[in-house]
Structure formats: C-alpha cells, structure tokens
Amino acid sequence: MCTDTIDQKNACLDEILASRRSYRMFRSEFPPDDAIRRIIHAGLLAPFAAAAVGNSTDYFRRFFVMRKGSRSMAAASPLVMEQVKVMEQGIETEMKKNPHLRTKAVSFVQRLTAMRKMGRVPGIGTAPFYIVVAERKGFPSVEQQSLAHCLENMWLKATALNLGFQMVSVTAQMSSDPAFCRILGIPAGEWELMGCAIGYAQEELGPSVRPPVEDVTLWLE
Domains in the chain: how many in total? Predict the structure, then answer.
C-alpha cells in the first residue's frame, strides 16, 4: 500500500496530468512487455457501463496488442488504410451536397488526404505497439464513452512510465470490418473499438497550454 501523504499523491497525480501529451514520433526500440501489461491493467481499472453491458459471463472488455513488424500489423495496416480512403471519399461526397458540413469537415478531410498520400496511418506500424481495445456492445449504446475512460487510464499510465502515447481514432471505424475483426478473433459488429500507439517518444514536447480554471468555470447559485 502506498504510504505517501495525500499532498504527495496529489503532487504526483498533478504532474502526470500536466505531462500527458500526444506523441506522434517514436523511437524504434520496444518498451518492455511488462510496461504494456501495466498500461493494459490501468485500462481494466477504468469505469464502464455496467447497466448497459448486463450480466455477461464473458468479459466485456478486451485488448489486442500488435507489434511493429508482426504478421498481425502487416495484415491490419492496409485494412485501416482502406477505411481512411472510404472515409475521405464519403465525406467529400457529402460535403458537395452540404455547404455547412464542408465548412466544419474540411480540416478533417485534409488529414485523411494526408494519410492517403503518405500511404500509412500514423501509429499503425510507426510506433512499436498498436493496441486495439474492444468494448462489447450493449444497450444503451455507450461503448465509446467506456472506451474513452479506458484509453484515458492507459494514457496516464503510459505517461507515468515515461512512454509516448498516441490515440489512433480511426480504429473506431473498423468494428464492422470482417477482415479486421478476424485478425482480432472477434465477431464483426458485436464490439466497439478504439486504438492507441505506444512507444518511446522521439522527442520531449513542451507543456500543454490551458486557460485558468477561473476563465472557464461558472459557479451556479
């Protein structure tokens, strides 16, 4: 049991929260497998939608670890890249019909276009580890909220272990892809997915900038 005082615990937590950043450039060396297990354990400790999942005899959250250079990574990478192209084409088609969407989505489409031109999705094969987290679908549909809690825990644990972490949000679009789900060994359409990339950061990033609490808080009577 940790014997630190409350002030010491809070100081450590505040430092981890302030240090959490999105890293997109990773060194080639692999972190120890034990560090990945500790990050996954942090994800298991995250809250979940118990009322939505129900009393399942099969656990509702799963983790799938792909290493850079592995067969699974080689199989998954082109499938995700194909989904990026589908998303780009679909949104561009909708933007032609909807001027309001064109204004809102233009920067997102530009990112998809950049990925297509690069021929890879950042985090998938560019970091030592690509981890897919799956949350069993229930009712009401709050799986992505549960996955957000899970990934945040993993992100903070990676930060505490001095590892770089990057969300790979396009993973969410792969939950109904039969070929991608076969790699994971789960039925397509029965789980929601989210992913992240983990490795040693290539360079340190500066502190994130946030407004003072007083500027964004209204105390209601």
Answer: 2
- The whole domain housing 114 covers 78-118
Contact 188, 175 (CB under 8 A): yes
- Residue at 107 is within a domain: yes
Q: Which pLDDT score is estimated for 97?
A: 81
Q: What is the pTM of this model?
A: 0.89
Residue 56, pLDDT above cutoff 70: no
Sign of CA dihedral 65, 200, 17, 216: negative
Decide if 97 is inside a domain: yes
Q: What strand order describes the sheet that includes 61-67?
A: 61-67, 129-136, 191-199, 164-168
Measured CA to CA, the distance from residue 181 to residue 62 in angstroms comes to 12
CA distance 201 to 177: 31
Same domain, 107 and 177: no
CATH number at residue 189: 3.40.109.10
Helix (H) or strand (E) holding 30: none
The structure tokens listed for 128 are 């030592």
pLDDT digits (tens, 9 = 90+) for 137-176: 988 888 999 999 999 999 999 999 999 999 999 999 999 9
User: Residue 88's pLDDT is what?
Assistant: 85
